[in-house]
Design a protein that fits this description.
The chain is mainly α. About 65% of the residues lie in helices and about 0% in strands. A hairpin with a 7-residue loop joins β1 and β2.
Amino acid sequence: MAFEEKMEVIQSIEQHVEQFIDEKMKTPEKSWQPTDFVPNAADDDFADQVRELQEGIAQVPDTVMVSLVGNMITEEALPSYQTFFNLLEGINEDRTVASPNAWARWSRLWTAEENRHGDLLNKYLYLSGRVDMREVEITIQRLIHNGIDLQTAADPYNGLIYTSFQERATKISHVNTGKIAFKSGDKLLGKICNTIAGEEALHEKAYKFFMSKVFESDPNGGLAAFVQMMKNKIVMPASLMDFGTEKKQYVNYTSITQKIGVYTSHDYANIIDHLVKFWGIDKLKGLSDEGNKAQDFLSSLSERYFKLAERLQETTEVQLIWLNKTKYSI
């Protein structure tokens, strides 16, 4: 489909974006806030609350702490995410952050909710006493300084594919972290992770819904975007946290999430399988020759990734980062 026609599709979806905003998104006044979960310094028993928080998190394994920090750092890089979405072609034609159009409103609502996730986890980790917060803060600043390259080429179809995938991945990561925390005895952290995962699930629902409208209007274009993003491979938002340094924090972080089952190669394959089924890729009709090839490629893609996941060799030793200890052997 020609560029102008693709822009028409994106503009036609605005009404659905507006509807989703009106029906599903909450105002700041009606939303939860980080101080609803963590001790408030204004309370007379603040010290007791902090002590209770630290007693709960003391049972959480070091590897889970590293995973939690990595999740938090990813959430804290919000300036990059709103910029990314507003730079997609056809999304914010006004070129102003305060634009009243539906796509721009969505980008603000989405990232405003995500911002709370980073704030909550940051406060919780600070109060936990188990994290080298200065090193964490350096990593956050470096990540925002380096920016993100999600390999979407400013294409809105690619962007919607990416966010559909990434929001589901983030939801899975928070859900699994919460499960481990709860089993370790930290019920508060379990509640925090589940609350964040609930909003990630809502964001996932939004992006999958928006992209489903693309497939309805332009199945060939949607398939081409899906194939392109899968061939590029979905790059995690925090992948540039080490760029310009000799550190290997990102590799260590992802190795740990794989090792403890927070986010794994099997999850990656499962997300592909889920999206292919959710969008009914194998049922799309009236396709071009390229569209038929894309359909065949995508319909069997998750199977390939499941086989790759089975062959993946896991490391037995991982590097602990952002904590006081240096090594952890499993």
